[in-house]
Amino acid sequence: MLAKAAGTAARRARHGALRQLSASAKAAEALPLVDLSRSDEEAAEELRVAAGRFGFFYVSNHGVPREVEEGAFTALASFFANEEVKGSIHQSKTGSFRGYVGPFEQGDYGMDDTDLRKDQTTQGADKEAEAKAAMDYKELFHFGTELPRDHAVYNDLLYCDNIWPNNDPSVFREPMSVYYEEVRQLSDRLLRVSALALGLEPEFFVRQASETPMTSMNCLHYPPLETGELGSQIGIGAHTDFECLTILNMRGTNDPCLEIIRPEDGAWMPVAPREGCFVVNVGDMLARWSGDTFRSTVHRAFNHPRDHRYSIAFFRGPDFDASLAPQVGNKEKYMPPVNAGKHMLARITQANPGAVAADSA
Ligand SMILES: O=C(O)CCC(=O)C(=O)O
Ligand SMILES: [Fe+2]
């Protein structure tokens, strides 16, 4: 099995860390909480501290109905169990990033210094397993903002038509779209609260993230390792998110399969799901806008040894033409300012060397 071929040192370190964590789960440091039942001004104060320290935080009282969340995860579980449906909407048939991507088809986000796959790929004896360990053991469905082909900022990588299974829309398309719209509204509120937290007028980010938003959603499945022990196969390799904010929802296990780099000491810090909460993180674009007052933190996720893990990552992006000029903080670092769309395409092609940004504005 995969985990057997993985680097033993890395695996032992991971195994030890998780075992320790479950033994002292209560003592483990947890992410801060932003409670959205409070006023925007009060929530802004919580967000300011959390985004400045970790770039990651829990969000409670977020307003997304429980049945909408459950509807999306139920639809996802049956989608990922259906090989025929997945095959029919494989990304390779779309010429874009929309649709289905299978296990070991993605990996390497240009963060190799923080990526333990480096150890794994040099230590394994079995070539095939080594090659797999270098890639993400995840499958996903991706969709996002669509624009007409004759729109001034249209390009295939960011705005092409979504591709959906050819089944009854109530089975998959509708529950996923309803969830998307709910979290999109939540992302508006979080952008307002973020603006307040930085001392900007509340609509500053929303105004620049609503016409042609480079927003998308990654719906992920991390299959279990089935080794009976905590493994080190990476589900998604070390990366930062490109956009403004990510709203992450996790299901299938309460173990902390997500890890973030703790800014104080550079150590990996496990993050467990928290009942009733989303995990929200700052992406590269909001970090730039904030002149690094907010952090865009490197993170990764592992497969669980026994459980199927599912997550939905909603990425709220800015408009293609938005200027990412820092408004506060370290303004010098990001001058002259970059255009959000061009920046996004550069990051996408860096992480996916085969992708060509045809039709880009
Ligand atoms: O599944 C997770 O916990 C993380 C997903 C993630 O980081 C992403 O899709 O960008
Ligand atoms: Fe991410």
Q: Globular, elongated, flat, extended or rod-shaped: what is the shape?
A: globular
CATH architecture: Sandwich
Q: Describe the largest sheet.
A: 8 strands, mixed
* Tally of DSSP β-strands: 12
Mean pLDDT equals 86
Helical residue percent band: 25-40%
Strand percentage, roughly?
A: 15-25%
Terminal CA distance reads 46 Å
Low-confidence stretches: 1-27, 118-125, 357-361
CATH topology, by name, is Jelly Rolls
Bound molecules: 2-oxoglutaric acid, fe (ii) ion
CATH class: Mainly Beta
Structural class estimated from helices and strands: alpha+beta
Task: List descriptors.
single chain, 361 residues, alpha+beta, Jelly Rolls, eight-stranded mixed β-sheet, 11 helices, 12 strands, globular, disordered N terminus, binds 2-oxoglutaric acid, binds fe (ii) ion, DIOX_N, 1-aminocyclopropane-1-carboxylate oxidase-like 2, iron
Please explain how this structure is put together.
With 361 residues, this protein is an alpha+beta fold. It has a single domain (30-351), classed as Sandwich (Jelly Rolls). It has eleven helices and twelve strands. The protein has helices at residues 2-5, 8-23, 40-53, 66-80, 83-88, 117-123, 127-133, 156-159, 173-197, 284-289, 340-351; strands at residues 33-35, 56-60, 99-101, 139-144, 216-222, 234-239, 245-251, 258-261, 268-271, 278-282, 299-302, 309-316. The strands form two sheets. An eight-stranded mixed sheet has the order 1-2-10-7-12-5-4-3. The chain has a four-stranded antiparallel sheet with strand order 6-11-8-9, with no helix packed on it. The chain is globular and about 50 Å long. Residues 1-27, 118-125 and 357-361 have low confidence and may be disordered. The site of 2-oxoglutaric acid has 11 residues, from strand 5, strand 7, strand 11 and strand 12.
